[in-house]
Amino acid sequence: MTDTSAKKVDAQSSPRGDMGQKYLASGESLAMRLWEQEEPADEVKPSTKREYETVGYAISGRAELHLDGQVIVLESGDSWVVPKGVSHTYKILETFTAVEATSPPAQAHRQDR
């Protein structure tokens, strides 16, 4: 039987992940997370590859997405895609807030580390 229940998640009381992200609504095949007021850093974090696809939307601030040899500047109103299995990292340039959706859910099976 199909699950038809609606779910609501209050970001104020959402659990946090190991990297500081807030977990928002999550379904069987996708999930949302919030990166809120991420502070600038002098260095780029080491690149990683994830077993999920990510789409994101920048709410405020600026960041660089380092993606498989490319550098993409993300600003308020920009959206992006990080394909599954592609080497990437982020560098925060100005205090940054963004929402991302991952498929499958990043927090499933502790993939979101």
Briefly summarize what is shown:
The chain has 113 residues and is mostly beta strands.
**How many structural domains does the protein architecture include?**
1
Contiguous low-pLDDT stretches (5 residues minimum) are: none
The major pleated sheet works out as: 6 strands, antiparallel
CATH class: Mainly Beta
Overall average residue pLDDT = 88
Sum up the overall morphology in one term.
globular
N-end to C-end Cα span: 33 Å
The CATH architecture designation is: Sandwich
Percent range of helical residues: under 10%
Q: What would the CATH topology be? A: Jelly Rolls
Rg result:
14 Å
Number of strands: 6
Q: Number of DSSP helices?
A: 0
How much of the sequence lies in strands comes to over 45%
The CATH superfamily is Jelly Rolls
**What is the structural class?**
mainly beta
Secondary-structure element order, N to C = EEEEEE
Walkthrough of the structure:
0% of the residues lie in helices and 48% in strands. It has 113 residues and is mostly beta strands. The chain has one domain: Sandwich (Jelly Rolls). Strands 1, 2, 3, 4, 5 and 6 form a six-stranded antiparallel β-sheet that branches. InterPro entries: Cupin_2 (IPR013096), RmlC-like_jellyroll (IPR014710), RmlC_Cupin_sf (IPR011051). It comes from Myxacorys almedinensis A. This is Cupin domain-containing protein.
